[in-house]
Design brief:
By secondary structure, the chain is mainly alpha-helical. It is built from 9 helices and no strands. The longest helix has 25 residues, at 162-186.
Amino acid sequence: MVVTEVSIMHRAREGDHTAFEAIFDQYQRPIYNYVLRMIGDPEEASDLTQEAFIKAYVALAKTPSDLNLSAWLYRIATNTCIDALRRKKILTWQPWETFTKVFHPKQVAPDNPEQELLRKEDAQFVQEVLCKLPPRYRQCLILREYQDLPCSQIAEIMEISPSALKSLMFRAREAFKARYLAATRVGGGIP
């Protein structure tokens, strides 16, 4: 018998720890990767991921039956990250190579050291540009470009309409492009 996400949610809502464990097993890695991109520190990302799942577990009984689980978990993770960033008052980013090792392990072993060095420099530069964007721009770009989520889900996570997301995504990409081009023209620093 195939167990659906709806039945797992129902069982978890009723207090079935095994059902919530199945939810955790399914979403822990994508949520951790998202939190890691937002926070930049693997140890802190692990702690915040656990904190987000604890919040989800506590709130699960009060959720509606038609809950979009994935969007709800990303929203909890986002709020957990924002709270942590407010406490820190600074935002740091994980180096691009850490992301690449997690998602593209075959691409990590360099066949051409010179090419690998250039790739690392480009990736670090992209991270620096991302770091300078406003948090809402970073959030939508990370969810779309790194997490590869559909726009409908990103809109739900960010609690905005799909049309507002399209506008936000456009502005975020334009801001990224402008900062990237300005920095490459100047030959170094990120404005």
